[in-house]
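Assemble and predict.
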Amino acid sequence: MELFKYTAAQLHQKLVSKEISATELTQNVLARMDAVENDVKSYITETRDSALAQAKAVDTKISQGQDISVLAGVPGALKDNMCTKGVTTTCASQILANFVPPYDATVVEKLRAEDAVVVGKANMDEFAMGGSTENSSFFPTHNPWDLSTVPGGSSGGSAAAVAAGEAIWALGSDTGGSIRQPASYCGLVGMKPTYGRVSRYGLVAYASSLDQIGPITRDVTDCAHVLNSICGYDAKDSTSINAGVPDYTKSLVNNIKGLKIGLPREYFASGMDPEVERAINKAIEQLVALGAEYKEISMPHTEYALSAYYMLAPAEASSNLARYDGVSFGQRVEGSDIVDMYKKTRSEFLGAEVKRRIMLGTYALSAGYHDAYYLKALKVRTLVKQDFDKAFENLDVIITPTAPTTAFKIGEKTNDPLAMYLQDVCTIPVNLAGVPAVSIPCGFAGGMPIGLQIIAKPLGEETLIRTAYTFEQNNDYHKGFAPLGGVK
Amino acid sequence: MKITCKDVADVALLSRLEFSEKELETFTGQMDAILEYAEVLNKVNVDNVEPTAHVLPLKNVMRKDEARPSLARELALSNAPEQEDGYFKVPKIMEG
């Protein structure tokens, strides 16, 4: 039985009705990993033994008649930038190749408390810098819909694992689109919650004012379940929002009558694949037929968001990544004195894209350029955020494509960093504004999935779930399973 | 050119990174393209616009200054490339 093709909510029913055991389920997913991992390469580290132990513990609870949570006994993947006590956490970087965290990230603690099974740590762009997972210092991950294409990134391993049946659900992190864009490329549901909704404690920092953890799942129902498990205030993250967490499954309602949708014309600019545009327009027509109203709007600072982001994120990264100095953890190369050791260690073990962003950020923050680049970008960020504030005065959601194209070929953009950055053009403004957004499947172009991005106001995750669920229930784009086709 | 090889070499020193001549050239070209792209920011009027470093209306988040359990010393040192007598060990910092 291909249990690996089901959703977490479906598998939970099978577990509580004792149709299957958690051990069988985990073994089924591990067998799937045996069959396809060589082609897909989703995982940096597999945690088979602890996964089976977790599954066994859930079986004991079920046999004792205890209540279990929806994720209990259901195998999932964690992006390898979330600290797992006793399990290597590399960020896909050579500099952390030997790093074994002495503590769990808050999201990992929460998942453990629910008895979720973790089968592995997923591949990613090194330190989450990239949009294709080709920047992993270990190996690239392949898109299960066509193995010759990228799965997106930076949470590409998380998305590929879920699409290939090597995990039922996954966590990713999103600084400029790193959950939504791979979800889009792999035909999945990926949500970046409101900044502060999910604790970042134990998430290895890239750009702290933008980073946010969120779920990658096969459907909107599972998205709501995973959100329920990971959201909430955490005293260990001073930027987490101290507000109650609703039960997101209550928003799984097939009704959007009266929903006010805005379509920002700046997001439908040049460079977009016409088939992507057609799919988005068709989705809007459908949402209108289901009772929503839409109007075209203008968000005039959209065109500046990408430039602002590529000053701000590297600036924050240059500061955050100063800690990789060979002193307290990670790899070290000996040097003649301490500065020489820093230089040799960092030069040897950090990858090209990471170095590029550290350099760019250091430049943007350096004396003489700070006001022209960094401060200017912070002010432009204010304007981008005001575009959203203004739009949400009269709207419930904003809808855009998630990415301008479907997944591109492996190697196609590796020599042109700027072309790679342009794939984030629709997702980046959302991080700058701190608002929540979800990508859901809305069609195919040449057999490859297309993603629809729905954006809501801060703490508007319930509106996102309701809108996404309604669209999903009236379509079947999420039902197809990736064929693992194409030539690797 | 927005940026020269020498600028990039200076930034490399600040970043504690070393590059070969060839790498320096590649980086200079790529950083130049990105900075050129960022020039679009100069088209925006930001007079009287406050910067946004952070989207949440949070100021200093304080807690009571009370001792509480923390990571055990041996765990904190467990990933150290080199340690001695319960301390992280690094190469010589000062002359003499």
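The mean pLDDT of chain B is 91.
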